[in-house]
Design brief:
The chain has helices spanning about 1-15, 25-30, 55, 60-70, 100-110, 130-145, 170-175, 175-185, 205-215; strands at about 150-155, 160. The protein is an all-alpha fold and about 220 residues long. The structure holds heme C (2 copies).
């Protein structure tokens, strides 16, 4: 009898099951006031980067950390924000932060937001050789001029680069491989009117640059 009561009590404690992967917390925190969680959300909410493909774009661990300790990725503001050209930044105060537990729940939810039909498996997962990485660094910085608009790390590990695009300083810990490849090949599938030039890269070049971007990580020996 005692065992039965204890079992019933434990069951009671575990009920309801943890509500991961639902949008209630995101609603409660007001995230949809600024971010789009579905491509059907109204464009006036487009004052912050879209999250309806967050599950393709971000590494979950990075999301959980960012939501606890947000920091600035776009020093010049979010260029797609309708307020941007008018000098009205979407964030008038620091980005909302949440507790560890909440951040993990939200990251679980965001990880499920995916677009169908993205290309996968185009990028070699083997580490780049030193010489190939050095060549790709030249392509990234000089041939294509990516650092004109993006911050990255120089040889001594210091941040260097333009700020009109999002920082790529910690891209290797932040972004998913297949997403970067898809972004480089066809950014329009994510953002109809973005401000990044379309480079028209062939698959091999896009895959190689993706591999290079993944090596840009804070605290690596660059
Ligand atoms: C007042 C508007 C506002 C609210 C509310 C808001 N955000 Fe943001 N969020 C922004 C802006 C603006 C950025 C871009 C910051 C930057 O790049 O420096 C951002 C960036 C992000 C990023 C990084 C996106 C990327 O592509 O780099 C994530 C993830 C994120 N927010 C999630 C959330 C979540 C989850 C909530 C609710 C808990 C939330 N935000 C609430 C405005 C907002
Ligand atoms: C003229 C400025 C400019 C140049 C040059 C540029 N970008 Fe971008 N990039 C942007 C902007 C702005 C965005 C944000 C989305 C948008 O508005 O299109 C972006 C977004 C990105 C993203 C997604 C980052 C995120 O967190 O959302 C990656 C990855 C990226 N660029 C890589 C590159 C690479 C690789 C090159 C060189 C081949 C490059 N960019 C050249 C402006 C630029």
């Amino acid at each position: 009898m005692k065992i039965l009561i204890v079992t019933a009590f434990c069951f009671f404690l575990a009920w309801p099951p943890p509500a991961y992967a639902d949008s209630s917390l995101v609603q409660e925190k007001g995230c949809p006031d600024c971010h789009r969680f579905s491509s059907a959300d109204p464009a006036e909410k487009h004052k912050a980067p879209d999250l309806f493909y967050a599950g393709d774009k971000f590494k979950k661990q990075w999301l959980a950390e960012f939501l606890q300790h947000p920091y600035t990725l776009r020093k010049a503001g979010y260029t797609v924000d309708p307020g941007f050209p008018l000098g009205e930044p979407a964030l008038k105060a620091p980005h909302v932060s949440v507790s560890k537990e909440e951040a993990e729940k939200i990251a679980d939810y965001l990880a499920e937001l995916k677009l169908p039909g993205l290309e996968t498996g185009k990028v070699d997962s083997n580490p780049l050789s030193k010489s190939l990485r050095a060549r790709l660094k030249i392509d990234f910085e000089r041939t294509y001029g990516c650092t004109a608009c993006h911050e990255a790390l120089n040889l001594t590990g210091n941040v260097r680069g333009g700020v009109s695009g999002p920082s790529l300083v910690n891209a290797g810990n932040r972004l998913q491989t297949d997403w970067i490849f898809n972004w480089l090949k066809s950014p329009k599938q994510f953002l109809e009117r973005g401000r990044m030039p379309i480079f028209d890269l062939d698959d091999d070049t896009a895959a190689a640059i993706t591999q290079y971007i993944l090596t840009i990580q804070q605290k690596n020996e660059n």
